[in-house]
């Protein structure tokens, strides 16, 4: 053993992306609610558990963002699976809307943190925030916005798959096959100088 810790980020992002894609296909209207059983199973095994594992592994690396993100969204998928399987029909839709909206608030401040990480994660969290907000409003209004939220979720999933692939493929090749455009103080200073000129 070299003592070097593996990067759990791609695992967490892949679990999130895969499960988000499957649920979003239902929200977008590609499949009906009969397909939800597969999403529940995936939410428990991959979206939930794999992200919780990633969160645990981010902790000794000192990555606060990764720990909070993966633990939280892993818990989201577990809460969704339990709700959908056991309690879905008994909960008023207005209350479900608030559940989604509160996840939108959490996602919003996580999105702010990504401005000091990389552009790829900025886009993942931006579209995830939009997904939660649009789904919340769609749930409150019983409108086609739920379908729009499904399409936003599909975009979110693709972006998360990209970020996951980048964290696996780029180190393997030793170069940026999938650029992430990481934050750097130097580039921010150059942008600020250009804006001021």
From TrEMBL:
Entry-linked Pfam families: Gpr1_Fun34_YaaH (PF01184)
One example GO MF annotation: acetate:proton symporter activity
GO BP term, pick one: succinate transmembrane transport
Keywords: Membrane, Transmembrane, Transmembrane helix
Membrane topology type: Multi-pass membrane protein
Coiled coil: none
TM annotation in the entry: 12-30, 36-57, 64-87, 93-111, 123-142, 148-169
Compartment(s): Membrane
Listed GO CC annotations: plasma membrane
Domain of life: Bacteria
Similarity section: Belongs to the acetate uptake transporter (AceTr) (TC 2.A.96) family.
Name of the protein this chain belongs to: Transcriptional regulator
Species assigned in the record: Sulfobacillus thermosulfidooxidans
């Amino acid at each position: 053993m070299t003592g070097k810790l593996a990067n759990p980020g791609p695992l967490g992002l892949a679990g999130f992306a895969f499960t988000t894609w499957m649920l979003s296909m239902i929200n977008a209207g590609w499949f009906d609610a009969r397909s939800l059983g597969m999403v529940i199973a995936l939410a428990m095994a991959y979206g939930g558990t794999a992200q919780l594992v990633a969160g645990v592994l981010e902790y000794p690396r000192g990555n606060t963002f990764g720990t909070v993100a993966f633990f939280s969204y892993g818990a989201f998928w577990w809460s969704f699976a339990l709700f959908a399987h056991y309690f879905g029909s008994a909960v008023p839709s207005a209350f479900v809307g608030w559940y989604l909206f509160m996840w939108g608030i959490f996602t919003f401040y996580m999105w702010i943190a990504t401005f000091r990480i990389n552009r790829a994660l900025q886009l993942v969290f931006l579209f995830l925030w939009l997904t939660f907000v649009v789904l919340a409003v769609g749930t409150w209004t019983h409108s086609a916005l739920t379908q729009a939220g499904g399409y936003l979720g599909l975009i979110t999933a693709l972006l998360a798959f990209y970020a996951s692939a980048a964290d696996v493929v780029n180190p393997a090749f030793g170069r940026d096959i999938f650029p992430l455009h990481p934050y750097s103080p130097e580039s921010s200073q150059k942008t600020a100088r250009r804006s001021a000129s």
